[in-house]
Amino acid sequence: DWGRYALPEKGMLFSEASLRYSDVNNHVLGKWGETLVQLYTYSATPTVPGSYFLVGQLTVPKEYEGIIVKHKKVQGVKIPSGYQKYQMEWEEFNECYEVFATEIDKVTSFELLNPKFMAYLKDNELEFSLEVISDTIYFFTHVAQCDEKNYEILLNVLNGAYKELKL
After folding, report:
1. CA–CA dist 126, 84 (Å, integer)
2. What digits encode the pLDDT tens for the residues 15-27?
């Protein structure tokens, strides 16, 4: 369970994380060029059914204060204080996702969510949300169990983000 030691101390997804109780498992690490890539399952409350997320993360060369793109079906997470909600120009995207950012990162959230990347998120087989904290982008979705097919889908999403964001 060494993965618990690396959990961030701020943000939406990990706000309820506890070194004592949270669970990080099925960890896969690798690199694309100079970018560190990780895939794993995570739950702040592993004894609660349906509390597991499949998480993929990319380390990026720039620091951010905070951006959240939350799929509306994601339950059990709360938006941290200091974030404001923003609407995108594409109404179909707004029907599926909520976008939040700190004042410092509001412009960056619109750069991140260019039309091609919004379509990529919306059209994906799994309902991914994403959160940008510090120098890391986290993609996550609820999962019932660890399934290698879901890891393959997540890896494709990370690869798409890597290419789209030109990391």
Report:
1. 26
2. 777 767 788 888 8
Task: Write out pLDDT tens, residues 81-117.
Answer: 999 999 999 999 999 999 999 998 888 888 788 888 8
161: tokens are: 């983000």
Residues 28, 143, 111, 15, CA torsion sign: negative
The Cα–Cα gap between 57 and 140 comes to 9
What is the distance between the alpha carbons of residues 151 and 131, in angstroms, rounded to a whole number?
Answer: 18
**Among candidates 63, 131, 139, 73, which has minimal Cα distance to 99?**
131
Which pairs with CB-CB distance under 8 Å and at least 24 residues apart come from 157-162?
157/56, 157/120, 157/124, 157/126, 157/128, 158/37, 158/39, 158/56, 158/58, 159/32, 160/117, 160/120, 161/58, 161/117, 161/130, 161/137, 162/32, 162/35, 162/37, 162/58
Structure tokens at 57: 């993360």
Q: What are the b/e assignments for 70-93, b being 16+ CB within 10 Å?
A: bbeebeebebbeebeeeebeeeeb
pTM above threshold 0.70: yes
d(CA 84, CA 102): 6
